[in-house]
Amino acid sequence: MPKVIIVGGVAGGATTAAQLRRIDPDIDITIYEMGRDISYGNCGLPYHIGGEVAERDQLIAATPESFLERDIIVNTHHEVMGVDAGRNTVQVKDILNDRTFDAEYDHLILSPGSAPRIIPALFDVPQAFVLHSLEHLDEIKAHIENEGIERAVVVGGGYIGLEMAENLVHRGIKVTLVHRSEEVYPPLERDMSGFIVDELKAQGVDVKLNAEIMEVDGDTATLTTGEEIDAPMIIAGIGITPRTDFLKDSDIATNDLGYICVDQYGRTNHENIYAVGDAIETSYQHVDRPVNVALAWGAHRMAYVISNQISGDRSVQFEGLLGTNIIRFFDHDIATLGLEVSELDDYPHFVIDHKQKNKAGYMADSLPIHVRLHVAQEDGKILRAAVVGTEGVDKRIDVLAAHIRLGGTAMDLANIEVAYSPPYSSPKSVLNMVGYKAIEKMNKLQK
Amino acid sequence: MPKVIIVGGVAGGATTAAQLRRIDPDIDITIYEMGRDISYGNCGLPYHIGGEVAERDQLIAATPESFLERDIIVNTHHEVMGVDAGRNTVQVKDILNDRTFDAEYDHLILSPGSAPRIIPALFDVPQAFVLHSLEHLDEIKAHIENEGIERAVVVGGGYIGLEMAENLVHRGIKVTLVHRSEEVYPPLERDMSGFIVDELKAQGVDVKLNAEIMEVDGDTATLTTGEEIDAPMIIAGIGITPRTDFLKDSDIATNDLGYICVDQYGRTNHENIYAVGDAIETSYQHVDRPVNVALAWGAHRMAYVISNQISGDRSVQFEGLLGTNIIRFFDHDIATLGLEVSELDDYPHFVIDHKQKNKAGYMADSLPIHVRLHVAQEDGKILRAAVVGTEGVDKRIDVLAAHIRLGGTAMDLANIEVAYSPPYSSPKSVLNMVGYKAIEKMNKLQK
């Protein structure tokens, strides 16, 4: 019976285990998870604080007990400290019992995930938290309830920071958002993101830009601007790093940033070692360029690919990622896909900017959508897309993802026969019009 | 200067005229429209009755005056009575002045549209209306206001009937819906459409199935069931027929039902005669089979194709249609695309049925979506899709339209990298899961 060891039991690891068991009822599966919990909905954590996820336990998809019923062995509080790829063993630390042992595998699946970054000023600050796990959620909730928290500081204006700010506001907590630059939500083009700070202010959030927390003393935080702010609770959302230090003595290949390199089968540089989830480097789907996308869609897809590889169906491959992403920010939807803005310089391209109502313009509740495409001059390939609006943004970004995946160009968007009825679209939809604009632009360039 | 005559000035005709002028500032364009108005948003008419389109004039995209500013001549109340393709002339009746004349063209564009069907029992009934034009809208509104209408009968449970019922309810009018069979909204699979009658009843609509109006006497209508109902206003929405009788003495090819046959350039059997809009027969995009789709998307696309053909860019083609459609019905969204149910028998296929929440299941406001695909056994091609739910249906049908257009199969849906965040989707989206189900089904069939 081949023995599979999975390092990490959250999204990537748990999904791979479940999928593998589904395909192969007999294979021997053991998960080592350093934390307390497995298989919880990471992305849903902020929404329990805001109340949109009513019960905490709704976030839990599987437990060690439910996995055991499917003959999947889960060891929580077990940290994998190293991999000996030559001997096909991992070195495991049983944290609660403070002992270390080696475990043998035939196939190893690495799903160590990422660790939230933390700033030095918040080391050892008891009211400073991150929200990266169910344990963190429990800590934050307990702190809010025990301390009667009515004010909080959110550090970071990225997606975690914005989701935290929104959910704290929904909970009735007065928020101060501290962001180190002027540019909140870096995934979005700077000239498209101005509404975010406006909305934060409209929601009563005190926004401190170009500021960092320098020091915390009691319930007071001092910013690099000199200002002192009330900080009875601080939640930092300033990014993540892959949790791959345990691989440093192995010869499993990682990139400069520590992400584990995998091929289209999810395989590392070792035939029988796979990796999935936040800690992997894969490649873009639409251009030949490496990328790391710490998002759930890719983890779920890769879990499927790896479980098929291991169980013998080698035909299933990972196509790479567009990095399609979206966040809801109060009434706004913000979505992007494709290359990051900073990567665009390497590709001669033009920009299509288009604003149109999300439904027939004569409908009383029609609302504007703004689409920006970065289009390769050479062939019309859509290199990057950004879509913002307050309704129907998710539709447009998903259509773009489906279209790009099958080789559709910007010009080709004119041909997508969307479902038209006044409550949903115009007869020439937002994306159709983007396509017509791309045709005009391309025609001009070719003259 | 080539002379273009356009028969019909509503969606297809007006859009073609505008597009042609945009491409070619010099070409000579004349529109003959038998009705009073041109270029109004047909699909928006019911929503003005319900109040979602606040001002009637918002429905008007262009007028004869605004077209004249762009050097497009519009003759309303002018009915084209015949076409002499040999002599390149049309016979025109100036209705208000009761005179007839011939007009010459170099290119002729037929956009006569469709006429609403009417049942004999409603002939000469003063309070019986259809809603197919702005004139009809004005008549209905005047009748509601002048007669203080508080009750109305809607005849027909197709999309016009359902939209009318909803909008009358929104206006506070008590509705009786009379439908001749048990099966309302025929575009949708019968076993998926049960909620429609439930919702009608929940909205206070009195639903009379298996019934037709047999006779109207004063404000009372007698049904074929013998029942008498209050009918101070009757709106019939029982389908349309192509308005192509004027072609019967020409040799312009039409199909058995009177739809004008066109090729991928929008051309009829005459090199210089094109047709667009409700009255054409085109072909499906995804299977080789003729179809007529009286919807706005195709009219707008064909307007673009024809105007490019005439102005010399022969590379632009019409790809055929999926018939992607959607209606909003109170809180429900109902969408389909592809073959009609009755056409499926000709294609060996299997069915994928899938129900899943529209967003992460732990979100308090997540709502179920039901997707049904009819998939060709041979190659996994999606022959037909139906999607119903109360949120996010339009997204799924549009993604399907984009996917099918570029040759994506049912199995392939697993690979679409949708934008995931708990308020929008699950990590494995509704369509991804449909894809995984199709893979399993296909694997079983091939064993």
Automatic annotation (TrEMBL), chains A, B:
<keyword id="KW-0285">Flavoprotein</keyword>
<dbReference type="InterPro" id="IPR023753">
    <property type="entry name" value="FAD/NAD-binding_dom"/>
</dbReference>
<comment type="similarity">
    <text>Belongs to the class-III pyridine nucleotide-disulfide oxidoreductase family.</text>
</comment>
<dbReference type="InterPro" id="IPR016156">
    <property type="entry name" value="FAD/NAD-linked_Rdtase_dimer_sf"/>
</dbReference>
<feature type="domain" description="Pyridine nucleotide-disulphide oxidoreductase dimerisation">
    <location>
        <begin position="329"/>
        <end position="425"/>
    </location>
</feature>
<keyword id="KW-0274">FAD</keyword>
<dbReference type="Pfam" id="PF02852">
    <property type="entry name" value="Pyr_redox_dim"/>
</dbReference>
<dbReference type="InterPro" id="IPR004099">
    <property type="entry name" value="Pyr_nucl-diS_OxRdtase_dimer"/>
</dbReference>
<dbReference type="Pfam" id="PF07992">
    <property type="entry name" value="Pyr_redox_2"/>
</dbReference>
<feature type="domain" description="FAD/NAD(P)-binding">
    <location>
        <begin position="3"/>
        <end position="287"/>
    </location>
</feature>
<dbReference type="InterPro" id="IPR036188">
    <property type="entry name" value="FAD/NAD-bd_sf"/>
</dbReference>
<dbReference type="InterPro" id="IPR050260">
    <property type="entry name" value="FAD-bd_OxRdtase"/>
</dbReference>
<keyword id="KW-0560">Oxidoreductase</keyword>
<keyword id="KW-0676">Redox-active center</keyword>
<protein>
    <submittedName>
        <fullName>CoA-disulfide reductase</fullName>
        <ecNumber>1.8.1.14</ecNumber>
    </submittedName>
</protein>
<dbReference type="GO" id="GO:0050451">
    <property type="term" value="F:CoA-disulfide reductase (NADPH) activity"/>
</dbReference>
